[in-house]
Design brief:
The protein has three domains: 345 residues, Aldolase class I (TIM Barrel); 142 residues, NAD(P)-binding Rossmann-like Domain (Rossmann fold, 3-Layer(aba) Sandwich); 114 residues, FAD/NAD(P)-binding domain (3-Layer(bba) Sandwich). Helix content is 33%, strand content 17%. The two termini are 40 Å apart. The strands form seven sheets. It has an eight-stranded parallel beta barrel, surrounded by seven helices. The chain has 645 residues and is an alpha/beta fold.
């Protein structure tokens, strides 16, 4: 076995866990609106158990229907009526010798009013979460006491349903964390003030659950190792909390960090390296004698093994890694690391959640759709018939993989000398090497299925007719947007920059376009001692990206001396100048720049699609060629077109 420590059995209380991989909680939006375990969320967890996870900790499970709703479709442990659906879910997880805990949760002042059906946002004290922006109602002493009972009821429901344990969510700025932290707890009653009073709410929850469910029923506490707030919980105080919790008889600690206001530390974009926060868990592990679970932005099985070797934690929390590839555990155990579809840190999952939708994954188009997509739902009626796929980008490769599984013979035409399409540009900005790995994983998957890929070959109508294709998937990418303004011939494109056809250093550069393409091009240029200014017509940049990702890229640019100009229209290029119109005032102004890079992305190539539609009866289009978007859009479209072809 390649990773001996990762696949060593472990103990949490009296519970034996088959390996050291823990799928830590993530809100999904897959549950039924009633709070029951739907078939979607059941299948979602079942696939991860089947894929080799040792312990699954459920998504946030609400314990209060009035003020505790975190998502429209979220598991709920407020009424005994949910037990049958929970039992079915746990049974299907247990079939693979995987254990499952329920995470008990209340958002406190991090609840969004839209989810609360007119009920007030509540908190220990009237302190606003800056991310939510709503003044909460301070809980009375009796309301706090009643809330303790709701946590206990949730734990009792979990035990009755067959869960192996519960986890109390006391991190990330949620309600329990708000009682612990001096940043949010300004109370003067028995639940506020000194350390022990701030701990009282959590103490009562733990002691009461142990009384109601028995001392052998494992309780995990998810806690921060640092809030990263000026007046919040420090590393030193978090160590104190960890030691105190151990004294209450809990079974394990699950270490994370941050709050909504420091959300970049909870759900990190790609700029954060694996293990950047491992010291938080390592320090706590050294201070206690109970098992420690910790999340550390794990992307690779080898890194998970290293964390165990270094004694960072006893169990490795792998959350988004199990979204991206439900077979993460099994592939790691087989030593097949290269075939793991690794999380690329694009934040698409949480972008969807922030929109109020169920989560989606850029590299795994099956996430949450296992009940109606997946290999077991494929109609294998290809019978060896040839299908031409034009373009070897993410849409084309994903379509070819699905078609091959259906028994078709896909032939991929790629005009360049490599697969990956636009991802071969997307992997050039800082910290984007995971995209290179995704390209290689796609190549291996296609190779395993016998997909024929013809590089340096243009997929023309005649070429496709020559192979006798029964249909065509057009996934050839979009057409670069080049605005027709005076002096445009003096500019270069983002493609020329990212492929190093053009190199700049020590220059003052205007990057036209504040979307994903423009921001990442500017980020790349800023690392070569260039003073970069992003010029964007809209009132904000990166609006199609998740907010923490946009903030991370913008911070990178500005720290390197760059600038962001919004509400600004690119009008013309002169000799060493760029004319920009301020949309608010309507006035034009010339700004001095040494170079101008057009990075406005691509538009659909309708003419190319029409050309194939005129020549063949069965033509489908996927990706930028028909609907410009990101990697997630491309893989989802490619999968769907291969599925329904």
């Amino acid at each position: 076995m390649k990773y001996e420590k990762l696949f060593e059995k472990g103990k949490i209380g009296k519970l034996t866990i088959k390996n050291r991989i823990v799928m830590t909680p993530m809100g999904t939006g897959f549950a039924a609106a009633s709070g029951e375990a739907s078939e979607e969320i059941t299948r979602y967890y079942e696939e991860r158990a089947k894929g080799g996870v040792g312990l699954i900790i459920s998504e946030v499970c609400r314990i209060d229907e009035l003020s505790g709703v975190a998502q429209p479709c979220q598991l709920s442990a407020t009424d005994m009526s949910v037990i049958p659906s929970f039992t079915r879910m746990v049974d299907r997880v247990h079939a693979y010798d995987t254990k499952m805990f329920m995470q008990l949760h209340h958002p406190g002042n991090e609840a969004y009013p839209i989810t609360l059906h007119g009920n007030p946002v509540i908190a220990p004290s009237p302190v606003i979460c800056k991310t939510v922006g709503v003044m909460p109602k301070e809980m009375t002493t009796s309301e706090v006491e009643e809330m303790v009972k709701k946590y206990v009821k949730g734990a009792f429901i979990a035990k009755t349903a067959g869960f192996d344990g519960v986890e109390i969510h006391a991190a990330h700025g949620y309600l329990v964390n708000q009682f612990l932290s001096p940043h949010t707890n300004k109370r003067t009653d028995k639940y506020g003030g000194d350390f022990f009073n701030r701990m009282r709410f959590l103490t009562e929850i733990i002691v009461s659950i142990r009384f109601a469910c028995g001392a052998d029923f494992p309780i995990s506490v998810r806690m921060d190792g640092n809030e990263f707030l000026e007046d919040g919980l420090t590393e030193e105080e978090c160590l104190h909390i960890a030691r105190y919790l151990e004294s209450l008889g809990i079974a394990c600690l699950n270490i994370s960090c941050g709050t909504y206001e420091t959300g970049w530390s909870i759900i990190e974009p790609y700029a954060f390296a694996e293990g950047w926060k491992k010291h938080l868990a390592q320090n706590i592990k050294a201070a206690v004698h109970i098992p420690v679970i910790a999340v550390n932005t794990v992307k690779h099985p080898a890194f998970a093994e290293r964390l165990l070797e270094e004694g960072v934690s006893d169990f490795v929390g792998i959350a988004r890694g199990n979204l991206a590839d439900p077979q993460f555990g099994n592939k790691a155990k087989a030593g097949d690391d290269a075939r793991v579809r690794k999380c690329i840190g694009c934040m698409n999952c949480f972008k969807m959640a922030a929109l109020g939708r169920a989560i989606e994954c850029a590299v795994n188009p099956l996430l949450g759709r296992e009940t109606y997509r997946g290999d077991d739902k494929l109609v294998k009626d290809g019978n060896g018939r040839t299908v031409a796929v034009i373009g070897a980008g993410p849409a084309g490769m994903q379509a070819a993989i699905v078609l091959a599984k259906r028994g078709y013979k896909p032939v991929v035409f790629e005009q360049s000398n490599t697969i990956g399409g636009a991802m071969n540009l997307a992997d050039k900005p800082p910290c984007k090497t995971l995209i290179e790995e995704f390209i290689e994983t796609l190549r291996l998957e296609a190779e395993d299925l016998g997909v024929e890929i013809r590089l340096n070959t243009v997929g023309t109508v005649d070429a496709i007719k020559a192979i006798g294709a029964c249909g065509v998937v057009v996934a050839a990418g979009g057409v670069k947007i080049i605005p027709q303004v005076p002096g445009i011939e003096k500019t270069v494109t983002y493609e020329q920059v990212l492929t190093k056809e053009v190199n700049y250093s020590g220059k003052k550069i205007a990057v036209i376009g504040g979307g994903l393409t423009g921001l990442e091009t500017a980020e790349y240029l800023s690392d070569f001692n260039n003073e970069v200014t992003v010029v964007e017509m809209a009132s904000a940049v990166g609006t199609a990206m998740y907010r923490s990702l946009t903030a991370s890229v913008v911070e990178h640019i500005t720290k390197n001396g760059g600038h962001i100009m919004t509400g600004s229209m690119f009008k013309a290029v002169g000799d060493g100048t760029v004319t920009i119109n301020d949309l608010a005032s309507g006035f034009d102004k010339d700004y001095p720049f040494d170079a101008v890079v057009v990075a406005m992305g691509v538009r659909a190539n309708d003419a190319l699609v029409a050309e194939f539609e005129a020549a063949f009866d069965k033509v489908v289009a996927a990706g930028d060629v028909i609907n410009p978007g990101n990697i997630a859009d491309a893989t989802h479209a490619g999968y769907d077109k291969g599925f329904v072809f």
